[in-house]
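explain this.
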Amino acid sequence: MLALATIAGPPPSAHAQAKEKRVGQKAAHAADIDRNGVLILTRSALLALDQANKTGNYTVLRDLGSPNFQANSAAKLGDIFANQRKQGLDFSAVAVLEPQLTLLPRIEPSGMLHMAGFFPSVPLQLNFELLFEPVNRQWKIFGVSVNLTSGGPQAPETPVAGQPKPTDPGPPPDAPSMAVQPKTETKPAKP
C-alpha cells in the first residue's frame, strides 16, 4: 500500500536527472539538519497523517503542508489515504521508535528537503518517504509516502541466481566419544 500526496508530477527519470546535471543545474546535496530536526519533521508529519487517518479529517494535515500541498483539498487527501484509513492502520509507534534513514536528508535541486527510511517494529514496519518545501524559513510538508511491510529480517522467496539451494545437512554430529578434561595447571620448575 503506497500513498503519496503532492500536486507535483511524477519524479524525473534517471535520464532526465542526468540531463539536468549536464545542463548545469545543482545536484542534490546533504541537508544541514541535525538529528533532532529530522525527528521533529518525521514524527510530526507521520503523526499528523496517523491522526487524519484515524479521524477521517485531513484539514490539519493539509494545513501543515506547503501552499503547493494545500492545493489538495481535505477531501482529495481523504481519497488518497482512504485505503490506509479503511485498514485501520496505526502509525502511533513513530512517537517512540527511532527512525532508520535509508536516504539521508538532502536538498534536491528544486530546493526541497528529501528523506526516506523506516521505523523498525514487529510484526509490521512503517516505511516512509518525505518531501518538505521551504516556506517562510520553515519546512512544510510537500509529499508524504508511507507503506507497511513485515518487520524483521525476511528470507528471500527464491534463491539468488548462481547460488546453490541449501541441502539437508542431515542429523547433527555425534557428541565426542571422550570426555574433555580440564587442563591441569603446572608450576614452573625451580632452578
